[in-house]
Design brief:
The chain is α/β, with parallel strands linked by helices. α9 packs across α10. The chain has an eight-stranded parallel β-sheet. Strands 8-10 form a two-stranded antiparallel ribbon. The protein has a single domain, classed as Aldolase class I (TIM Barrel, Alpha-Beta Barrel).
Length: 306
């Protein structure tokens, strides 16, 4: 953590790593998911939208393997705000290790070969990392800046079953350990507010994830979206009654996360047009400002309760 910062934000980490503002370019590379095509299941995870949690990703044609148009479009749009930034290619939508390894290699290197790209981030499921994929990721990691994001969401298997993830916590632990043993940075996704979980269960998931030397954490505020199976099953479900309740939990989570773990997310981020609840969750900047204010009010910081 730098200066007066009370948590180890990924933005500050990347600025230290590259010496300047670093921006992720979200790429939809045309992958699908084993929980949609019948390999593991159908319908996707209950909380997931039709866009595979990638509504904000730039869609690249599957045949357009150099991604030049997608990357250029995003850089052009962002360069006015950040004229001297570094860029990471973020393979975001669906399961970005779910394809034959030769296809993965082609698509990853198509982005990495662009001279404007300084590194790569790959989001995937914990059950889609076989030995061939791990070998490819290790090779990329040896030559480029990289992290791999694992969508865990909860360490409780009963929750994962209820959410139709078609993977369990043990799949995550095995994959995280395999990546870490190869020197690959791991960023873990957890959702705060899943149906049936108490706040103590959510805190315990944070503790269990941090028992491994993960590089980063993404804490997602549970958003109910119109295109998700969860909304169809539980249209009246509201994960948190107020912003203040969520802010309190986020601060308590930060206090039990080791200071060296980078924080990639502290709330949700979905288009307002598909958001159902919490109705205030689209106010991302307000939520983050309130978390920072509460950290200061309590005179606490990341790792303070360890």
């Amino acid at each position: 953590m730098q200066g007066g910062e009370r948590y180890n934000s990924i933005s500050n980490y990347l600025k230290s790593e590259f010496g300047k503002k670093t921006v992720k370019l979200s790429i939809d590379a045309g992958f699908t998911c084993p929980n949609r095509d019948g390999t593991a299941g159908y319908g996707g995870c209950a909380f997931c939208s039709e866009g595979g949690s990638g509504e904000l990703a730039s869609r690249a044609s599957i045949s357009d393997t150099d991604y030049s148009a997608s990357i250029s479009e995003q850089i052009d749009r962002l360069s006015e705000k950040w004229p001297d930034a570094c860029y990471l290619a973020y393979f975001q939508s669906f399961t970005n290790t779910y394809a034959p390894v030769q296809v993965l290699r082609s698509r990853y290197y198509a982005a990495l070969d662009d001279p404007r790209i300084s590194g790569i981030a790959i989001a995937t499921r914990p059950d889609c990392l076989d030995d061939d994929v791990l070998t490819l990721l290790e090779k990329i990691n040896n030559d480029h800046f990289m992290w791999v994001e694992l969508g865990l969401q909860s360490t409780y298997n009963e929750t994962l079953k209820a959410m139709n993830t078609c993977y369990i916590y043990e799949d995550y632990k095995r994959s995280a350990e395999a990546l870490i043993s190869r020197g690959i940075r791991v960023v873990t996704h957890l959702i705060l507010g899943l149906p049936g979980e108490t706040q103590e269960m959510m805190l315990e998931s944070v503790r269990k994830v941090c028992s491994l030397p993960v590089f980063g954490l993404k804490l997602h505020l549970m958003n109910i979206v119109k295109t998700s199976p969860l909304y169809r099953a539980m249209p009246d479900y509201v994960p948190f009654g107020s912003i203040e309740e969520y802010v309190d939990l986020a601060v308590r989570c930060l206090e039990i996360i080791p200071p060296e773990v980078t924080i990639h997310r502290l709330t949700g981020d979905v288009p307002r047009k598909i958001l159902v609840s919490p109705e205030w969750s689209y106010r991302k900047r307000t939520i983050l400002n309130m978390i920072n204010s509460e950290l200061k009010r309590r005179d606490t910081r990341q790792g303070a309760a360890i």
